[in-house]
Design a protein that fits this description.
heterodimer, A: about 290 residues, mainly alpha, about 0% strand, elongated, B: about 100 residues, 2 domains, 3 helices
Chain lengths: ~290, ~100
């Protein structure tokens, strides 16, 4: 009995239509969310470090110039601005973004791989007593390989999972548009304050300016001889200002996140009409192929 | 441009001017103290802006979409369970077909 059951042919035909959604856009989204979180954290660490360095440069200028009492100098040396709250509130938003990204990752992990096939193998193992019973009853060996019906069911499962996953990821990406826009607005506002208004570059400039003031002070000090000036010069050679450079990384990661979400929202899914048409055409081909047994 | 931005821009211009004077007048106590005070004002404004930024979302903007995504993971699990059962039945059908052959 070699003819193929029509139902099996249809299932196989449906399976032939399956288009696995690419995991790349979702993976890109997760990667971009992680990159943005890291860049934002690094950015505020740099701001804190540069701010601390600028305070020290200011205090150093007063120290070298011997201006004010030592208590006053001590106060200047200890002064600093605390950006930990600014960092914490932004990283809280990043954590919320990552919570969402983890679910997107979980969806692609659950939809991908060979989970249906694995389950089918598991079922085969648990039902292997059936052919054993049939063999005992008939006295002939029954093949236990996965057959056409089981293959069709497995493939059909993949078809359904792939299509509902692609559709759901599209819907999620559209719903994530406004939350992502809120983050984009936050980063744009930060960029305006920190970069456009020269806060970040100002922190570097004040360090350089005050270092020059200290060098000038040492150079014009009538009590400083060549050896002292040489010592100051060598110290300056090894000195570098603490700069804020991660603004571009934050902007680039934000662009990558937006692009990844747009790619998810634009993901391809098969319309019901196209799906039915392809299934019908494939079923026609499948049912025409088998050779009837004589 | 917000008022704070204009204030910072003015203070930075003043700080730059003092920095230039400090190069030619190193050790000038008035200039050093003036620069320190101006920079302290700039830092206070910027720190306040970044710490109290009202444009940072105050509630989880992803709450709804995260819940939606979690729900879909459950849906996928249910589909998996359904196909596990269907595959079991299909396997039996295959074995019966094999027996009939």
């Amino acid at each position: 009995m070699h003819h193929t059951l029509p139902a099996v042919a249809l299932l196989l035909a449906l399976a032939g239509c399956q288009t696995a959604p690419s995991a790349a856009p979702a993976q890109n989204f997760v990667a971009a969310a992680n990159a943005l979180t890291q860049a934002e954290s690094d950015y505020f660490d740099q701001i804190q470090a540069a701010s601390n360095a600028s305070h020290l440069a200011l205090a150093g200028t007063a120290y070298v110039a011997h201006v004010g009492s030592f208590d006053d100098i001590k106060t200047k040396l200890a002064a600093h601005d605390d950006f930990s709250h600014a960092k914490a509130v932004r990283l809280a938003v990043m954590t919320q973004l990552q919570n969402y990204a983890k679910e997107v990752d979980a969806i692609t992990a659950a939809a991908g791989g060979s989970w249906i096939a694995d389950d089918v193998k598991s079922v085969n193992n648990t039902t292997k007593n059936i052919p054993d019973l049939l063999e005992k009853a008939t006295g002939s060996k029954i093949p236990v390989n996965q057959g056409a019906v089981q293959t069709a069911v497995t493939d059909l499962g993949n078809v359904i999972v792939n299509n509902v996953t692609a559709t759901e990821l599209q819907g999620l990406a559209k719903n994530a548009h406004d939350p992502i826009a809120a983050i984009a607005n936050m980063i744009a506002q930060d960029n305006d304050y920190i970069e456009t208004q020269h806060f970040a570059s100002g922190l570097g400039k004040i360090q350089n300016d005050d270092m020059m003031a200290m060098l000038s002070n040492a150079y014009t000090d009538p009590n400083a001889g060549p050896a002292a000036r040489f010592s100051v010069f060598m110290t300056w050679q090894d000195w570098h200002p603490v700069l804020v450079t991660k603004g571009k990384d934050v902007a680039d990661a934000m662009t990558a996140l937006t692009n990844a979400n747009d790619a998810l929202a634009a993901g391809q899914t098969l319309s019901a009409a196209d799906f039915a048409k392809q299934a019908f055409e494939s079923a026609q081909g499948a049912t025409a192929t088998p050779t009837p047994a004589k | 441009m917000p008022a704070s931005s204009e204030a910072v821009a003015d203070l930075e211009a003043a700080s730059d001017a003092i920095s230039a004077q400090l190069i030619s007048n190193p050790g000038n106590a008035d200039l050093i103290n003036a620069q320190y005070n101006i920079q302290a004002e700039i830092d206070a404004i910027e720190t306040n802006l970044l710490n109290n930024a009202p444009y940072v979302p105050q509630t989880d903007p992803f709450k709804a979409v995260t819940a939606q995504a979690k729900g879909f993971v459950t849906t996928l699990t249910n589909i998996k369970t359904a196909f596990k059962a269907a595959a079991g039945l299909a396997g039996l059908i295959d074995k019966v077909i094999g027996y009939i052959k």
